[in-house]
Amino acid sequence: MNRTNNLQLLLLIVVLITSQFVFGQAKTSNSKKKYDIAAFLYPAYASDDPRLRPFWPSGIGEWETVTSVQTRFPGHYWNRIPLWGTVNEADPAIMSMEINQAVKHGVNVFIFDWYWYDGRPFMETTLNNGFLKADNADQMKFYLMWANHDVVNTWDTRLNRYNENNVIWTGKVSRAEFEKICRRNIEKYFKLPQYYKIDGKPVFMIYDMPQLIDGLGGVDQATDALKWFKEETKKAGFPGLELQLTMWSINVNHSGFDGSKTKNPENAFVKKLGFTSATHYQFAHFANVNDDYLNILNGVKKEWARIDTAFDFTYYPHISVGWDNSPRTQRSAVVKNNTPENFEKGLRMAKEFADAHPKQVPLITINSWNEWTETSYLQPDNVYGYGYLKAIKKVFVDD
């Protein structure tokens, strides 16, 4: 091989190495981290569920509460109007539209508030008839948050003005009822390809631990029941169950652990029950929400840091849009200054938290997709239009 050939060969090697470096860099720079943005979905805006009629007799679910504020409270400051109208979210065509909008703006998981009362499911039509029958249901994932609280008069605006706390349905269940619920959810939902899983494990969130514990008969009995649930999930062919705690004070404080004998009774309590992860449902569960949104975010950041050091489980950051439940009650604590721009600051804070924990799934939860009666929704309205959805898109899709 002569000198010319050697130079040509050397030049070819340099070009190949340079090309690999350039293309590798281009590939790296174009690769974008994907986040699971999961919005809680409150399934009360359905028009074809007869079990909703006792609370909202007009037949449009809790839209009745949303649209009657001015009639019930003349001159009230709350006057939000949904740009999509009082849609029936149990209609697959409507849900198809909502899925398109959610995915377009970066929301790729719905966490369905899921209820079980009087020995049967409640408010399940939005999931079963709407989401799962939508023609694009394969574009999103979903998982369940068992909202196992008591039902009192809160939903019925004809009665809630009297502040009666009479229990219509209890959230407590016996062991037999608990097993019935778990087996049903494993077969009906966990096995669906759209069900959200972490490392192959279906995620199941529980809202109210005192209710669960009281119904099952105590901490030890609840621990045994949750262990059984995990084993049943494995028997169904999954590597395990991602048991997720709704993080708020009532769920981690329990008299069964003596603080003088246990170094960290809250963490010990959660570990005993077998929870492997947690997130929040609402800022209102741990923060003073009668405040400016940016002040609330400062407290939220401190709470995340506390959880990060005090607990052994994985914490997934949560951002709430706002809080104001005066559509139900006339008077309420109200989050101030929760503009889309400030909401975006909260999203960036959550993104930073997720990025700082690279070993966990980049899951971020948001309250909520459609909590209109608590004024914490992403859906477009007459005040900010698509502002909240655009904030998510800006942070997690466009950037």
From TrEMBL:
Signal peptide: none annotated. Keywords: Transferase. One of its GO terms (molecular function) is transferase activity. Pfam families: Glyco_tran_WbsX. CDD domains: Glyco_tran_WbsX (cd11579). The keyword Cell wall biogenesis/degradation does not apply. This is Glycosyl transferase family WbsX. It comes from Pedobacter metabolipauper. The lineage of its organism: Bacteria, Pseudomonadati, Bacteroidota, Sphingobacteriia, Sphingobacteriales.
